[in-house]
Amino acid sequence: MQAKWSWVKGGFLLGVWNLLVFLSGNHLGTTTAYAQTAGYFTQFFSDLIPTSAWTAGTCGADSTLRVGWQWLLVLGIFLGGLLAKGGRRQQASAIPEMWQKRFGHRPRLRYLHAFIGGFLMLFGARMAGGCTSSHVISGMSQLAVSGLLFGGAVFAVGIPVAMLLYGKRGVQ
Amino acid sequence: MNYLLPIIFGIGFGYIMSRVGAFEYANILNALRLKDLQIPKFMLFTVAVSAVGFFSLHALGLVSLNLIATNLGADLLGGLIFGVGFALAGYCPGTSIGAWGEGKRDAQYAVFGGVFGVLVYTILREFGLVLRTPDLGEISLIDFIPLSPLAVAVLFSVILVGFLYAVDYWEERKNKGGDLL
To answer: Which chain B positions have a beta carbon within 8 Å of A27's beta carbon?
Structure first.
């Protein structure tokens, strides 16, 4: 098991890394990549929804549904996670221990929670125009009012929902 | 178009977040339950470092602001919906991808759910079923405080870091079994 980095070390490194992204003339963001993926698949069935509806993002200038800057960034995040674990991926059925202690060993229910969670997050993020990366990391670094509002709203509801899910005492 | 740069940026983000533990369901849920604030401290410290750095580079003319327009209704309502999903999934849209890369199968389902969420949102919006209130424009705190942008950023970050260390001190006392306050 690798030693976990402290919040100061991690935050400093990520902050500096984020500055390099700013210097390259880009901005961190992941939601547009989700939208482009959804758009890419939808266009095979219908062109009722214009391409611009999918590519409208906060950080990229890609106006076509292709693998662009944002999508490659997201691919990199995937590879970063893979590399940090030294390429040793977990067993396919592994679900979080903490979740199991609360809800039992029910992988399908866990996947359903994750799916619904993902659904709501991207629904909300598209409504607000960004997610944790673009609103919080990128936006709040520029002291954007939108990022501060979004971040505040996420925690204002995330905290009570998490407490409800795990009860007052719950598992550690 | 340079294809290598975004991949390298992404790998760095993924690697750092993985090493800090941001791709762990338990760390996110325990943060939301206010039991272990490592991840919020990490995120906000990132913001503090980034803000001072960004406005320093900005003062030198090396970077320009790129803000997401503020829309009171959309930002708050979107954030509230996001928050419910965040507590259920235990990942955010970015960490879902990284956690999937780590091999977490539930994170993969969060990504699938996310793509589906965008699909439904976009369809509803295209058919005019999502109310949009007018934007307030691309506004930042620097527009409201009569100081230079860099001074505002330094002030913001100093207050933020002071707050983070106070939270850290409070957490350490709590973990030692002392009183909460």
So the answer is: 66
The interface predicted TM-score of the complex, written ipTM, equals: 0.93
Say yes or no for a CB contact (<8 Å) between A153 and B50: no
Residue pair B46/A137 in contact (Cβ under 8 Å)? The answer is yes
B83 vs A contacts (CB less than 8 Å): 124, 153-158, 161
* Among B23, B62, B97, B165, the residue to mutate for chain A (most A Cβ within 10 A): B97
Place of tokens 């547009």: A32
| H and E: helices and strands count for chain B | 7, 0
**Interchain proximity B69–A163, CB inside 8 Å:** no
Listed in order, strand segments (DSSP E) in chain A are none
Span B64-98, pLDDT tens digits? 998 999 999 999 999 999 999 999 999 999 999 99
**A97 to chain B nearest CA, in Å?**
8
What is the secondary structure of A40-88 as a DSSP string? HHHTTT---S-HHHHH--SS----SSSS-HHHHHHHHHHHHHHHHTTT-
Distance CA A158, CA A139 (A): 20
Kind plus residue range of the DSSP H or E element containing B1:
none
Q: Find which of B5, B13, B95 to mutate to test the A interface (most A CBs within 10 Å of its CB).
A: B13
pLDDT for the residue numbered B177: 73
Residue A52 Cα distances to A65, A125, B19, B133, angstroms: 9, 17, 36, 20
Q: Express each pLDDT in A108-151 by its tens digit.
A: 999 999 999 999 999 999 999 888 888 999 999 999 999 999 99
What is the residue whose two structure tokens read 């009722």? A48
**Tokens at B40, concatenated:** 């919020």
- Give the C-alpha distances (Å, rounded to integers) separating A20 from A16, A170, B1, B85, B138: 7, 41, 17, 30, 23
Residues 6+ positions from B123 with CB-CB distance below 8 Å: A49
